Amino acid sequence: MKKKVIYWSPCLNPVGTIKSTINSAVSLSKYSEDYEVAIINACGEWDKYLDYFKENHVKIINFKYSFFKYLPKHGYVQSRFSYVIIFLLCFFHLLN
Fold first, then answer.
1. What is the rounded average pLDDT of the residues 42-59?
2. Which residues contact 37 (CB under 8 A, 6 or more apart)?
3. Which DSSP letter does residue 42 get?
4. What per-residue confidence (pLDDT) applies to 3?
5. Cβ–Cβ under 8 Å, residues 37 and 28
6. How far apart, in whole angstroms, are the C-alpha atoms of residue 63 and residue 83?
7. Domain ranges of the chain
8. pTM for the full predicted model
9. Across all residues in the chain, what is the average pLDDT?
């Protein structure tokens, strides 16, 4: 029985977190047969990487929301507001 590893990493800006999440998920999927790897696409933040994930056998768990392009991404207060919105809309999905 494979163990499940699920990444939930809603990143607003393309900083190191996106690259490290992608590299971690792909390498775990590619080099270990004991794990089933999935990434949660909470608000559409991983939409431009979907083909890359399919090529590397990383599953995508899509929530029904796709509002990433409308969120404010710059500035301390605006980005914290965006993270609060993402958390509130995803809370019950994450419980399940």
1. 93
2. 5, 6, 7, 25, 28, 29, 57, 58, 59
3. S
4. 92
5. yes
6. 16
7. 3-95
8. 0.83
9. 89
